[in-house]
Amino acid sequence: MACRPPIVDLSDFDRRRSEIQKQLMDAAQGTGFFYISGHGIVQSLIDEAYGQADSFFQLPHDAKDRLPKVDWAACKVRGYELNNLTDGTLHESMMQAFDVHEDMEGAWPPESMLPDYRATTVAFMQAMHPVAQRILSCFATGLGFSPDFFEKMTDISSPENHTFLQYHKYPSTEGLKWKPGTNRITAHTDESLITLLHIGPGSMLSDGLLKSNYHRVRMPLPGEPQGDRYSMGYFVWPALHDKLQGKSGKTSATTMAEYMKQKGKIFSYSFSPDIDTYEKSQQYAFGPPQIESAA
Ligand SMILES: [Fe+2]
């Protein structure tokens, strides 16, 4: 089922807060997706971040492959991932966290290759975070928590927090043939409290009230642009060991660290290089995708 998410304007936030909260809660209880406008991030910074992503993906494969690999189950979400057609998906991505973790030094591409990459990427993450905070404060009060409920659990100055930015490149499909069922990114739900994608919210703390819906990045259809495509996703995580439980207590309490131990196994399964296993992972781990997007 394809549908078009609503556009929520965040401008003049303090004065329009109750109106914005209603729009966000309606969207999150509906499709679980919404576009935002009036976010206040200057276009030049967005352009610079896309420029750095482009420069990164143009590095030789060996240079990218020397970077750490993401370990989802251990919540180490930084490093390079390549998913080629043999995985049943087609994209490459680079994930980067804030510089509060002890092992970040080797997680950035060398300055000698990309002199401004680290500074621009950190500046872009720092610009995205207050936008996420405004949205999360609306979800907090909409769910009956205090306005700063999520702010406390998403403190990006704490080593407990593994919020990350992911640069995606979906390579050109011109001239490619692929098996039916191949996607640029397979159907999944996000693990984050909220994802801001330059072009989705979690349900664990809302007792299922807010949707964390299935989505995927499909291959382009005939007549759509077949060239390279980029996107940037900012995934806001709660601190690893904060108790996660909805207001009503209907959902069992957990922590992000425990949750990712389980979800990390599903991620490994879905990125299996075997197409049959991939198809089973669609059937058993994810269910049918409900939203189609060429994000
Ligand atoms: Fe996603």
UniProtKB/TrEMBL annotation:
Q: Extract the InterPro entries matched here.
A: DIOX_N, IPNS-like_sf, Iron_ascorbate_oxido_reductase
SUPFAM superfamilies with a match to the protein in the record: Clavaminate synthase-like
Matches recorded under Pfam families: DIOX_N
Occurrences of domain Non-haem dioxygenase N-terminal (ranges): 6-90
Protein's name in the database: Non-haem dioxygenase N-terminal domain-containing protein
What does UniProt give as the signal peptide span? none
The domain of life for this entry's organism is Eukaryota
